[in-house]
């Protein structure tokens, strides 16, 4: 799990081939456009969710637990329990992906949350207990051991008001990534995606499973199909104004038809390591199934982007503390003070605003 100007198609393709990734050239070509300012869309403040896969799953948990009053639900694919890395790369690698150092202690993580709560660095227990949650893991995952998904489910059972708020899903023959069901008219061939059992490739897995639709239906049970299946618009926006270490220059937002008029909810969707536009073109921001559900239910989808660097060569979200000050013995990456958490919340606030800030 472990320079953002858009490269030429040829250079990007060579880099992906060297990494063993297969991405359609059309996906790379679609990234070549000037980013706009993230728009103010008067989005709803009451119909929001955050979802993610792999490092994005860990970050989705961090965002939801830091600011639970701003989200109705959290969806986590192929990740482990909240707070697992505890600011340590060694723990991240050896206890939160593999369990060579044993399984993480939920009691220890509860104590971590309680310390944060006492200092006002996460949301309160009442707001946390009101969340709806969806947890998925592939039983053939060789990157994040499935037992870590089991531990996350147990952690959430202890935290939520009752079991009816939690849905746990498993896919027996699926590897590490985000399973998708490609529409019949898709221009993307299944062979261009990751293998269902092996994972890998783009980590967007051609498994004929609509995990996105199942997850969002669970997280937003009150939402019925509100609009016909019409195409929205995928916009590239400048992330530079939301300054945080580890963020790429450009992020993406999917805006369904009519959402410019306001009151649509927002789903923050966080890619995993090696799944950013920098790595796999627009495969994640177009092919997960989130946009199809968003079109039918009038839900904006925000796709922030992490970037690769010397400290973070695979372009992961910061779930172990690399983006925080180097002098901190206990980085606050999983709190309201976390650099990336703060930037993501600022993006959500922009979408909920009625006008752009004055320059």
From TrEMBL:
The molecule here is called PHB depolymerase family esterase
InterPro entries for this protein: AB_hydrolase_fold (IPR029058), Esterase-like (IPR000801), Plant_Biomass_Hydrol_Est (IPR050955)
Q: Does the keyword section mention Transmembrane?
A: no
Source taxon at top rank? Bacteria
* Record keyword Chaperone present: no
In the UniProt record, the signal sequence range is 1-29
- What is the protein's species of origin? Vreelandella vilamensis
Q: What's in the keyword line of the UniProt record?
A: Hydrolase, Signal
